[in-house]
Amino acid sequence: MGKGISNKYRTAFIHAGCLLMLFGTPVLFNNFYLSGTLAGMVRDWLPLVSFTVVFYVNYLFLIDKYFFTKKNVQFVVSNIIMFTAMIFVMNLAHEFVWKNLDQNPDQLHQRPSEFYIFYIQFFSFAISSIVSIAVKSVQRNNQIEKEKKDIERIHLETELNQLKQQINPHFLFNTLNNIYSLIAKDQTKAQESVHMLSHMMRYVLYESQSDFLPISKEIAFIKNYINLMKLRLANNAKLEVNIKECSKDYLISPLILITFVENAFKHSAGITKDSFISIKIDFDNSTLLYSTINSIGVEQKLEGNNSGVGLVNLQKRLSLLYGNNYSLSTYAKENVFYSDLELKLKG
Questions:
Q1: CATH number of 186-344
Q2: Residue 53: in which H helix or E strand, if any?
Q3: What is the pLDDT of residues 188-204, one digit of tens each?
Q4: Other CB atoms closer than 10 Å to residue 137's CB: what's the count?
Q5: Which end of the chain is more exposed for a tag (fewer CB within 10 A), N or C?
Q6: Quick one: which of 245, 246, 266, 255 has its CA closest to 337?
Q7: Where along the chain do the CATH 3.30.565.10 domains lie?
């Protein structure tokens, strides 16, 4: 509401400034102060007054009522009636100035023909109406564009919230399954897992509600998740983790990176031979370079390159939040799944 009031005041100031310049011009260039000719000043102002009336009658009433509603005949007829009335009033005003304010009307001026006066005035009023249409149309288009952006922003926020609501239970479901498997094997490790999970869930349920967080928090979350998953990793599985620290705490949308790591552990968990996972995070100034390579089973390979809810949601989130400022590649080849992400972080 405050912003709307501010815009109204700004528009009013712009109109007032334009009117001041318009009516101030004759004062600057007329010889009124040298000759004391009041008639010359009034004669210069009369057309400006008539143009202003035509402009604002269109600007405030006729354009909204007829022009924007496609009632073109009513709009043209209304303007013609207004032009005729203004010409009649202007002629009376000029007659008054001619006879009462000019000191020597016969010597100073020779009145033009009535047809010429009518033509000039009618044409000038038409120009004033066209200018009013142009100004009003620009303002209307700007308002429509602003409303469109507001609708897109609300839609974006709604869709992002829906995606987060899908991610949170998806993450919790997978992690609880992992802890459940550990309880039967090693209760000590299971307790450690619950402790790690409590820290991770605090991040997921509370901190991740922000649109963007420092990259250091996201990386800490990834490290905790990897440590949690290592507790139940098979002895024959090979895990390579290479995570570099970022020199500057750029901002990233939370829970962007976890999807790759989840999929890597999930797809490698059921493989009894030659199971491996490689996770790498690097930085090139403000660009995040993220990749995972993991083994997959034959039956998983048949699911395609972008299997699972996680990757589908990730693709949507990246498109909504980063536009063209990211590059994502995921594909499977010879029982190996590759994920590569280049992401331009926010400063």
A1: 3.30.565.10
A2: helix 38-57
A3: 877 888 888 888 878 87
A4: 13
A5: N
A6: 266
A7: 186-344
